[in-house]
TrEMBL record:
It comes from the Bacteria. The lineage of its organism: Bacteria, Bacillati, Bacillota, Bacilli, Lactobacillales. One of its GO terms (cellular component) is plasma membrane. It holds the Pfam family FtsX. This is ABC3 transporter permease C-terminal domain-containing protein. It is found in: Cell membrane. GO terms for biological process: transmembrane transport.
Amino acid sequence: MQIFKLARKNIFRQFHIYFLYLLNMSFSVMVYYSFLTMMDYPELEKITSSQSITTGLQLGSGIILLFLVVFMISANHFFMNQRHKEFGLYTVLGMRKSQIIQLLFLEMMYLSGTSLVIGLLLGGVFSKLFGLILGKAMLLNLKLPFYLSLVALKKVSRDFMLVFLFIFFQNGFRLYRTSLVTLFKRNQPSTPSTRYPLFLLLIGVGGISLLAYGYWQASHFTSYMTALGGVDTGLLKGSFFILISCVVGTYFLFYGGLPILLIGLKKVKSIYYKDLHMITISRLYVQLKENARMLATIGVLAGTSFSLIGGTTGLSDFLLQNAKARVPVSYMIDQQSSESFKKKLTEKKIDYTAKSIEVKQVGSYWEKELFRKQDNYIGPSSFIRESDYQSVKKYLLFSLPSVKLENGETIYLDQKNELLIEGAKTGEKIRLSQTLPNFSVKEKVEDKLGGQGGIRYNQPTFILTDEDWEKLPRTHSYGYDMIQLKHSSQETLANQLYHDQIPEVLYGQIENYYVQNNQLIGAQEPERNVESEASISQSVPEGYGYLTRKNSMSYYDEWQEARHKFGLITYVAVFLGITFLLAIGSIIMLKQLSQADEDRKRYQWLAKIGASQAQIKQTIYQQNRLIFFLPITIALSHAYFALQAFSHLSDISQSPFIFIVIAFLLLLYILFYRWTSAVYYQLVVG
């Protein structure tokens, strides 16, 4: 009974310590419950069957749980460190360790139960807000009422209880194995060393060298990847070596580089003796010495988080741009199906323009080099007329590259990702099957005709002069219309007609080409209707290949699907980013505030010898600013060069949306720093 009373008294007597712990535990429950409730909303479940939302949200919930578990364990670690002397006093007063562990269990039960209730209540409020934000991001017209998710409630309670038990047993085990002397020594202030050890200098130089190596190779990633063996092995090796060099370099920088820098600043009297810089530098040196591993870990994890956020948000923005690239007009419809649709558009007085493109397929063999390795292509290629290419230029959503050919020349329409890769070269000649002439490749331009892998077969496409194109056989050919609406106000009606008039049809063909004695041999079967890609893949003989294409594509459908994916990816990325930044901000906050009692006497002494409150406040803010932003600065540097490496393989890292998201997260982090510094100042001067 006395232990129950003691547990309650402890909580009320040291409420400022317990409050921070309670706040962080409640935040963890709120975030996790909000995310799980959003996944369980009936209105959102209606669209998960047609969108890849469930998988993305489940992955996001798993990552959030992992973040929060690490965060809760870290918060508990600082909470326990604050109470070692208290536990030592209990031991001196005659309490057995089993009784102290029982007391700790009761306190954690109070705190955990309270934080669970508070977190669930806040989660119930914010889950609706988060769900509405997700719906807006995905352009879904959702009306979300207040919803109590029993599934989320059970899962949060179960997971939270498991984490609570783990933390309790961890605390009990540590307390049981800790001696009385250790309990009283644990939080004694450290004395900064003024030595200039050689190994610190070596570690610091090594860290800077490793970071410089990793950043340089990331900036020249394609060349680095090529030197390591090309795309097959170079991609994995290059990424691994850069990752290891940056991670090890970060730890070396915090263990050796930054302490050496501070020791050097002590030698500069004009800086060290200005205002209260000696207090800031000395205290920062001690904190780096004590927390180098924590700060380096935050730098690495935050850098990884920023890189993932940048990559995913860039990818989501890329999906929207890709929708326009895949369907650069309102509709692309096979000529066998387009006549009835155009007739309906005319009947409904919907203004449009239509241009036809005819494609011939011919077996081809041409040399291709990628990452300085031969990657020759053998199989059917698509050929279109130069006049068809020129005729559709002014009707697309963006301009096509200009081309001009002579007979015997061809232009290769390359995919954008290969155009971005250094060393992606094509051979000078394209060899065709049978007795057909060869063509010299004049240049390669980006394929902006759209439909690749959709209404067009996913195979190399070339432009020929009309005269050369007519010489090719029509054995394997198909045509499609590119239809562009003139007025955006008619899009809704036109899209409804599209879905009513155009059935979904899948075409497929089987081919078998090979080179023998420097001659292209083989053939391809005529195009036919297939039920699905799986059905044709099962009927392909061994050694043969197959291709499929759709009979139609709609820009509005492609854009809507991309917008859904964009909203999901962006939402999960930003949610994870906010969760992670608040978690690491809270860890640093707990670490800083846990030292407030120790620092109070130091600042009171400064006030007695004449330091003004403004100077003390400035010193506190400077100290917290450096601790908060040193790891984040390193993290941003890691993320920048990671995105530089991504930009060698695609252009997703150039999206301005990445910088908007990261700027928003940094703003939240700055507010967190300001709030922590203000609380720290009040604890010290109070």
